[in-house]
Model the fold of this input.
Amino acid sequence: MKQKIFIYLFVFSILLILFQYVNSKRVFEDMNRKLDGYKAQLERSKDSVLVLQNENLELSHFNLERNEDAITYFENKGYNTDELISLIKDELYKLNETKGEHPIIPYGSEEGRHMMINTVKLLNHKWIIADFSDGQFWGELFLTYEITQEQQLKFNLVESFLYPFNQ
Done:
């Protein structure tokens, strides 16, 4: 009788071990499959990040904040470039507050509207591009700027265009 109990226990143990082995093997294979999926997703993400970094580098090529020569130009004149960049942009945006026609934008606006500069990008220590709109018409400007001996900021319109109006 004792021997039969041991045989049953032995068979039960074998079945339990076999069940554990099959179950853990299935769980292990499932985890490996998920891990492979995560690795593939990580590689795609790394590729996407690399593409975005390259695109960002290309887009920021003409940017005063990344142009070491232009920054050095201002630093040699004793300016803090971070403050100067915000000052230049603020001065352009302040021109939006003038009464009547905008002093830089060479296009008139519809009655009751006012042409305003929306976005400003400083390309280097001499050039700026900006876009403008009155809510119905829009265009872009190419400006030069300089800081005079009297520490005044002077803007000069070089080129501009107005997009055609399509209804």
Q: What stands out?
A: The longest strand covers residues 138-147. The first helix runs from residue 2 to 59. The mean pLDDT is 89.
